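Bug #77: duplicate submission created two jobs. Keeping one. Sequence:
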Amino acid sequence: MYSLHPARILPLLLLLAAPAAAQRAPEPEPDEESGTVIEFSGFFVEEAYNQERGMLQQIARVTAVRHGSWGGRYSQEWPVFDERRQLELAALVNGEDGLAGLGAELRFLLAGGEDAVFTLSPGVEAAWERDGEWEIELMVPASVRLFEGLVASTNAAFSVHPEDGGTSWQVGQGLIWRAHPRLNFLLEGVYSHGESVLEGADEEDEGFIVSPGVQVAFPLGEDAQLVPGIAFPVGAGPSSGQRAVMFYLSLEHPFGRRR
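Kept job's structure:
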């Protein structure tokens, strides 16, 4: 019988990207009417691009699971002086507890950047959960511009609970195609062991989802954009039969004085 293994959902991303790591990708063509170009931003698989100096991104995600509950995450991504460091502050909510946790993540740009072919930004997150437990997560997001308008992102994460020594991990692969300067199509796959991929799901041990989605950008004046999106994750393997819908909303805008 065919079985899913996390290694099968990881592409040869690093092998393909290594020779091109020092190159620069072509700049995307802006929308003729507004000048807006939608960012590459995944639903489940985090991309490796940090926020630029003077730009703040606020993101709200709400996931409703069929025959389950719902969960949500609100986050803010702040550049720390410039794009080499990024601070993310997050709040988790769900249908049973309301506020379910708080988190803070610091990410460092080790290679590449916004326009580079290959970008690598490992990070560490500390999260407090409603039951009083803490979680420390190490993550390694990597993104590759395969072609103009097509980005592949891979993310591997490992978490530990200091109180009881419990661990969990997940690996994910995402493809984002900018079909239009203001339109993204996404296809993501995530395997998780130790906790559910989906907020609000009943399964706790492991799961695998495949999720198609779409994002649309609406300009809000100079350098600001509102991006609603929707995704339809479907369970496979140990999560077979699981269905959900994710609603996504991102607001990116300047703050302070940009230089």
